Amino acid sequence: MRIPLNAVLALALAGSVFRPVLALAAPRAAGAAALAAERRLPIHISADRIELDQKTGIAFYRGHVKFVQGGLRITAATAKVNTRGNAIETISAQGSPITFFQKVPPPGQDIRGSAQRLRYVAPEQRLDLYGNVHFQQGDNSLHSARLHYNIETGVMTAVAGSPHDQVHAVIRPRVVSPAETPTGPDAPGKRP
């Protein structure tokens, strides 16, 4: 199932800051600007144990790992971050499950989800989620075994786990208020 995305959810790191990347629905311009501003906020990382090797550019985070930047929160059991020249190359995380939450500025809806494993490849702008992937924005949701997201092109591919499984998406219609209902000769249901 290929789903072109025209917006953002949270979950990847770009350069050395978190960057919102997945969504079922696009936030409006003001909301997108607020999310972009969050990328400049400091990242707070906590874990039971942190191992940093400045020579290799590899950091391991173990036990109750939590990444927080603005309205974005990601939890995992373990994470490995590879850097080169003070820029993030890859992030690999595992959890039981990994969870993520992004507070979306109004008029958007908050995003939340989970997976067993996550891999982010910064140079390719690619986010891969594996194992019982679930994410939800408002009443819309997606469940799959694997989910691959190309941040640059905005294309998501959700994959079932076996030939007998399927990807499952629930997309609720937006309720239109009477004030938003189009009128006039071009309105749906009008005949000339």
Describe this structure in words.
The protein has a single domain, classed as lipopolysaccharide transport protein A fold (Sandwich). The strands form two sheets. Strands 1, 4, 5, 6, 7, 8, 9, 10, 11, 12 and 13 form an eleven-stranded antiparallel sheet that branches. Strands 2-3 form a two-stranded antiparallel sheet. It has one helix at 29-38; strands spanning 2-4, 10-14, 17-20, 44-46, 49-53, 58-69, 72-84, 87-102, 111-121, 126-137, 140-150, 155-159, 168-170. By secondary structure, the protein is mainly beta.
Structural class: mainly beta
Using DSSP, what is the number of strands? 13
* Tally of helical runs: 1
Q: Helix and strand string, N-terminal first?
A: EEEHEEEEEEEEEE
| CATH class type | Mainly Beta
Mean pLDDT: 77
* CATH homologous superfamily grouping: Lipopolysaccharide (LPS) transport protein A like domain
Task: Tell me roughly what share of residues is in helical segments.
Answer: under 10%
Judging by the overall fold, what is the CATH architecture?
Answer: Sandwich
Number of domains: 1
Computed over alpha carbons, the radius of gyration is 19 Å
Q: Looking at CATH, which topology would you report?
A: lipopolysaccharide transport protein A fold
- How would you characterize the largest beta sheet? 11 strands, antiparallel
Question: What distance separates the N and C termini?
Answer: 38 Å
- Give the percentage of residues in beta strands: over 45%
- Low-confidence residue ranges: 1-28
